[in-house]
Design a protein that fits this description.
Elements: H1 2-24, E1 26-37, E2 40-48, E3 60-67, H2 70-79, E4 84-86, E5 92-96, H3 97-101, H4 105-113, E6 122-126, H5 131-135, H6 145-154, H7 168-176, E7 183-190, E8 193-203, E9 206-211, H8 213-222, E10 226-234, E11 242-250, E12 253-257, E13 261-275, H9 284-312, H10 319-327, E14 338-347
Helix pairs in contact: 8-9
């Protein structure tokens, strides 16, 4: 028995050393960018540098490959590395707008065929810039761009809920489902730094439109994916300034679809976080009045997003899918539905407010 235990311990150490050696022989890819220019795919890998260095800019490096097909571009990028390409730790896949407008089937099939890729990385679209420019936007604070973008998406609640938290596996489920049009996070460069830029809507297998961050935040509320959502209300009687509330724990929105109507009902909690209008919050009537006013603000935001969805004819809310699950019937003319919304906002009367100066 003792010999068996000793042998097991020895084997565990041998295996650990073997795995460690294998890891050193591999190029760990953390991020991939794909551009499409002049009928050619351009693929860049962001590779983690396993050599110790005090220089933050040496924590990762990039290699590039080009080809008429995505396979050729990936192969050329892999050939530029002396080590085996290792994709198990992939964080993000960045598509330029041109690449996303091409049929995504070839890219998706190639990514799915690799047995080492775990489909938990985030697909994103680069807005108003090349994907490789986004992947190359390193800084001293963020030397590994793919990790920065991954953190931005995951920490959605700290970024005003303007990212779409969806991994590649979930994206492919939507991509393959004929009753829903996928949406993924859009990223752009501001002062050479990556920032969240709303969501990219895909239809019929390619990019259709990039939606602004404000509308993305409303989409997350409707989709019960929002933890916080801010609403601004200007002061009345010609006063300069505004009052801001924060909707929180927003997972109480229901979409009811019939053959003729989309009915949205939301019951949301909120707290006043800033006020420069001089409301007397000791008066309970103020909370009721503000609640009604903010309900109208949110209702308008819902309607604006619904009009955009109808205009683009992109069912990002999955109304056809929800209707089919409910009735087992199809809803082909979903964009012709009339729209109704019922909103109840309960403002916390014990919340703390902060006066905002006019110049803020």
């Amino acid at each position: 028995m003792k010999k068996i235990i000793l042998l097991a311990i020895i084997l565990s150490f041998i295996t650990a050393c073997y795995d460690y050696q294998e890891l050193n022989d591999r190029a760990i890819v953390s991020g991939i960018s794909i551009d499409y220019e002049e009928e050619e795919y351009i693929v860049n890998f962001e590779i983690l540098n396993n050599q110790k260095s005090d220089d933050p800019f040496l924590k990762a490096y990039m290699v590039e490959g080009k080809g008429e097909t995505i396979v050729e571009a990936f192969e050329e990028a892999s050939d530029a590395i002396s080590k085996e390409t290792y994709l198990a730790h992939l964080k993000v896949l960045i598509l330029s707008e041109n690449a996303a407008k091409e049929p995504l089937r070839n890219i998706a099939d190639f990514m799915l065929r690799d047995p080492y890729i775990r489909n938990i990385f985030s697909p994103v679209v680069a807005k108003d810039c090349l994907a490789k420019e986004l992947l190359a936007s390193t800084s001293k604070e963020s030397p590994v761009v793919s990790e920065k973008i991954d953190s931005m998406i995951r920490n959605n609640k700290y970024n005003e809920n303007v990212s779409i938290k969806i991994d590649f596996d979930q994206f492919m489920d939507q991509y393959e489902d004929e009753r829903i049009d996928p949406s993924i996070t859009a990223i752009k460069l501001v002062d050479e730094k990556p920032v969240l830029a709303g969501m990219a809507i895909l239809k019929d297998g390619s990019l259709q439109k990039i939606v602004e961050p404000k509308q993305t935040a409303v989409f997350n509320v409707l989709n019960n994916k929002s933890k916080y959502h801010r609403l601004n209300l200007p002061c009345e009687d010609g006063k300069d300034g505004f009052t801001i509330i924060n909707l929180y724990d927003n997972k109480k929105t229901n979409l009811d679809i019939t053959e003729e109507t989309l009915k949205v009902s939301s019951k949301l909690n909120a707290s006043v976080i800033k006020d420069s209008c001089g409301y007397d919050f000791r008066d309970s009537k103020i909370y009721d009045e503000l609640s009604q006013k903010y309900e109208e603000v949110l209702k308008k935001e819902y309607e604006e997003l619904w009009n955009l969805i109808k205009k683009e004819k992109a069912d990002i809310l999955g109304l056809r899918k929800k209707y089919y699950q409910k009735t087992r019937n199809e809803l082909p003319n979903w964009q012709e539905l009339s729209f109704e919304s019922t909103i109840e906002i309960n403002i916390n009367r014990n919340g703390k407010t902060y006066e905002v100066k006019k110049d803020e």
